[in-house]
Amino acid sequence: xxxxxLQIVLLFVLPVALIQTGIFPIKYRMxxxxxxxxxxxxxxxxxxxxxxxxxxxTDNLSESLIPHALFTVAGVLALALVAKKLGRRAEGNWYKHxxxxxxxxxxxVAQVFAYRSFLIPELSNIxxxxxxxxxxxxxxxxxxxxxxxxxxxxxxxxxxxxxxFGALYYFYPNFYAAALAHICLNFAAVYYGFFRLTKVPEx
Length: 203
Prior knowledge:
Layout: H1 2-20, H2 29-46, H3 61-86, H4 104-126, H5 130-144, H6 151-171, H7 175-191
Helix pairs in contact: 1-2, 1-4, 2-4, 3-6, 3-7, 4-5, 4-7, 5-6
């Protein structure tokens, strides 16, 4: 239990704190994400995790796809409505932006692997209540997004997204379904102007 808690602090709190305090430049956040994934892979290998423990399975794929698809559609619509209410303009020439030229796919997959496949089972080793596991995941997922400006909007969006993602993965632990949902919602969030590194004026 203590080892699990220490791993969570070192992997999910410390790296974000390093960026938030400016010790680690935000422009190198992808490097830090890569280090995080490599560290998790090392732990998974050392502790002999199975693919099933990581949600990398197909036996529950069909039952996982429908709730993930419904959440994705609802999430994209919600992002579009919030963006419209805030007067956010969709990303112009999005097809030229590096994020949309493939970056969002490995970023989304890495986040799902770290925050769903690994973090949720780790939290389950420490906390017995499903809802506190989901809440713990949500808080850490939201904290990841504190590095972006426009926190008044981005943190509530991250919290609601993390809550949905966490609940879905806890009850339908399938990496493939979670990754597809996260890829779609990541694309939509950046397309509608959320999680930019420059501050966007709000109404």
